[in-house]
Amino acid sequence: MFTKLGNCKTKAVALSLIPAYADQFVAKSRAVPVVTDLFNTENLDMNFPELLKLCLNVNLDISDEQIRQVEKDTRSQAKGSGFFRHRAGRIGASVSGVAFHSNLAQPPQSCIKSVCYPNLYKLNTKAIKHGCRYEEFAIKAYEAKMKSIHKNFSVTRCGLFINKEHPFLHATPDFLTQCDCCGLGCGEVKNPLTLENGDFEKYATHKHSCLEKKDDKFALKRTHDYYYQVQQQLFTLPERKHNDFVVCGVDAAGNAHLFTERILPDTQHWDRVVPKLELFWRLCILPEILGRWYTRRLTAPVKMPEDGGICFCRAQPDKNIITCSNSECPYKDFHISCLGLESVTLPKTWYCPHCSRLPQFKRKRGKSHAQHKNQQNAFNEKALLRDKVCVCEVKATSNDRLLECHSQRCRNGKFFHLGCLGLKRMPNNSKTAWQCPACRKSKFQPTICTSSSSESENEVEFVKKTVGSIDKTSVLANLTSTDFDIINDQNGWLDCSIIQQAQVLLQQHNPLIDGLQRPTLNRVRNFDIASGEFIQILHTGTDHWLCISSIGCSPGVVHLFDSFYNDVILTEVEEKTQDLLSGKQVDLVYLPVQQQTNGSDCGVFAIAFATCLAFGENPAHMTFDVPKMRPHLATCLQEKNICLFPHF
User: Is the separation of the CB atoms in 218 and 259 below 8 Å?
Assistant: First the structure.
C-alpha cells in the first residue's frame, strides 16, 4: 500500500511518518547553511564595537550544487518556508538600490529588518497588491509578444539564486528566458499602479516613474532602484546575458500595453555598487543577525569613568571622534574607528548606534508642509459644508480652529470649537479617535433582538423587539478558587476572565482611562473605538498576552509593552491596535521592558505594565520582583483593589 501511495503524483502526508518514505518530505536545501545560523546568544551581551569585530571577520561560502538546490526548492517562492530561510540575512536585488543609497552612519532600520526577517516584514501596500495581481497576466503577454519575433522562445519560472562570488547577495528574477537567436536571459516585470490605461507618456512624467523619455524613446532610469535590481540579477546569474525589463499597463478593456527594454550587464555600475553593499551587510545587517543589535532590549551603560573615557570602549578621546546628536546620550562621544565609519560620510544630525534605536530618534517619513496644508483645507471644507457646527450651533468659517468628532453617529455638530469645549489645545487623539462628550456618554451601543412567528419566506412579521446595551468593559465571570490556583501556580497561564477582572479594577482606579475592554473581543475584531488615552491588554492569538497604550503618545502613535518580545511586532497586534484607533494608527512603537524568564508569566507582566500606566508610572523604568508578582496579583483580585506590583 505504501508503495502505491509513494508513486502517486500527490504525496500522502501519512508517508512522512514512515522512515522509508519520510525523506521525500524534507527539502534537500535544509542542509544548506543559512546566514541566520550565525546568531549566538552569547553575542547579546556584546557592545557594538565587540559585535562589529565579529561582523568584519564573517565569511560565507556556498557551492554551485548548493545554489542549484536552493533555487530548485524555492520555486514556489513565498509558498515555501525555504524561500524566507535563505533570504534572511542576505541583501536581495529588490533592496539593492536602497542599501546602496543609505548612509552607513545612520542606516534605515526598516530596510535592515526587512533583510533580516523577510517572513515577518512583508510589504502589503496597494501598489504591491496591484503588481502581484497582474504579474502573471503581464508575463503571458510578454511571452506571446516574444514568441512572435524570436525563434523557439521559452519562459520558465524560477526560485532564489544566491550569488556565488558574493554569497551575502541574492536575486529572484520573475522568469528565465531562452531562444535560439539570443541565448539565455532573464526578466523582471513591473505593473505600476500609477500607469493608468497603458498611458506611458503620462506615466513617464510622474515624479516616481521608473521610466524616462530620451530621444523620443522610453528607457529605464539608470538611477532608479529597478536598475539596481536588474543589474544584481544579471551578476548573480552570470550565464544570463541579458535581462528583459518589462513594464505592463492594463486599459479599461483589460488589454495589456507593454514596454520592454533589454538591459545588458553594466560592469562599471556593478564594480561601484558591490563594495558599498558589502559594507552595508557587515556594518548594518550582521550586527542584527549575530547579536540582535537593533531589536535587543536597550540597556543602560556602565557608569562613565572619571578619567574622561568616551565611546563604548571607554578609552580616551583621540582626534577622530564624533558626537551623538542626542543631548541625553549616555556615551556622548565616539571613536570613529570603533564604529567602522572611517570611510563613511557622516550626516550633520547623527545618532549613535545606541540612541538610533530609541523610538524618538528613528527615521520616519513625515508629511510635507504642502500635504499638511491640503489636509487642513479638506478638513475645513467639510466643516464649511454644514449649516451649523459645534454646541454653539453657528456656521463655520475658514479661520475657525475646529476639532472633529470621529463617531459615525455624531448628531451634535460633528465639528467643535476648542473654546466651546473648554479646551486650550488639540487632544493627542484629535486626528484619530476623539469623540465629543455627548458621543462618549453613549458609549454602550443598543443591541436590538427580534423574533418572528411567521413561516413565510417572502414576509417577515416582527412580534417582539428587545433593546439592550453591551458593556464591553465589565467582568467576564466571577473568579473561583480554580482561578486563584492558576494565578498562584508559577506555571499557570492566565485566562481571559482573570485578565478582565484586573482591567476592571484598573478602570475603577482611574475612570478617565479608555480601553480596558474584554480581551475576548479582539479575537472577533469587535473593540469599541478608543476616544481618549487608553490602556488595553491584548491576546496575540498565539498563547501570549501583552499590553498597548496611547498614554503620553503623539496622535496615532501607540506604545507596546511585551514581556516576551521576539524581534518584531506581529501583524495581528498591529491589526487589533488599528481597530482601537479606527484604522488611523500611525506607528506602533515597542518600548523595552523587563522580560519574563518562563513561558507562562506573560499575563502577569501584561497586568503589571497596565497597572504602572494607570498609576502614572513608566513600565520601561520598572524592574519587578518576579517571585512576589503572582501572590500580589492574587491579593489584589481577592481584595478588589489593585496597586503597583512589587518592584526594586
Answer: yes
Question: In the prediction, which pLDDT does 449 show?
Answer: 46
Residue 225 confidence (pLDDT) above 70: yes
Tell me which of 174 and 407 has the higher pLDDT: 174
C-alpha cell at 240: 544570463
Domain with CATH 3.30.40.10 in the chain: 307-357, 373-436
In the chain, the amino acid numbered 472 is K
Give the model's pLDDT for residue 451. Answer: 46
How far, in Å, CA of 176 to CA of 184, rounded? Answer: 8
Q: Where in the chain is the domain with CATH 3.90.320.10?
A: 32-294
The contacts of residue 144 (CB under 8 Å, 6+ apart) are: none
Number of other CB atoms surrounding residue 10 within 10 Å: 6
Q: Region 448-469: what's the mean pLDDT?
A: 49
Q: Are 159 and 75 in contact (CB under 8 A)?
A: yes
Alpha helices in 430-547 (DSSP H): 437-441, 481-488, 496-509
What is the spatial distance between Cα 197 and Cα 417, in angstroms, rounded to a whole number? 45
CATH 3.40.395.10 domain locations along the chain = 481-639
pLDDT tens string 360-417: 676 554 444 555 555 556 666 778 888 888 888 888 887 788 888 877 778 888 888 8
Can you spell out the DSSP letters for 617-637?
A: --GGG--B-HHHHHHHHHHHH
9-20 pLDDT, tens per residue? Answer: 676 777 777 777
Fold classified for 481-639: Adenoviral Proteinase; Chain (3.40.395)
Given 3.10.450.50, 1.10.3300.10, 3.55.40.20, 3.30.40.10, which CATH number is that of 373-436?
3.30.40.10
Q: At 258, which amino acid appears? A: L
Among candidate residues 644, 547, 544, the one with its CA nearest the CA of residue 600: 544
What is the pLDDT confidence band of residue 26, given thresholds at 50, 70 and 90?
low
Q: At 460, which amino acid appears?
A: V
Asked whether the beta carbons of 432 and 556 are under 8 A apart, the reply is: yes
What 217-225 contacts at long range (C-beta under 8 Å, 24+ apart), as own/partner pairs, is: 218/259, 218/261, 219/261, 220/245, 220/261, 220/263, 222/269, 224/97, 225/94, 225/96, 225/97, 225/98
pLDDT > 70? residue 256: yes
- Give the span between the Cα atoms of 513 and 614, in whole angstroms: 8
Which amino acid makes up residue 244?
Answer: D
Specify the CATH number of the domain 307-357.
3.30.40.10
pLDDT band at 148 (very low <50, low <70, confident <90, very high): very high
pLDDT of residue 462: 54
How many other CB atoms are there within 10 angstroms of residue 546's CB atom? 25
φ/ψ region of 27 (left if φ > 0, alpha if ψ in -120 to 50, else beta) reads beta
What DSSP state is assigned to residue 168? T
Assigned CATH for 32-294: 3.90.320.10
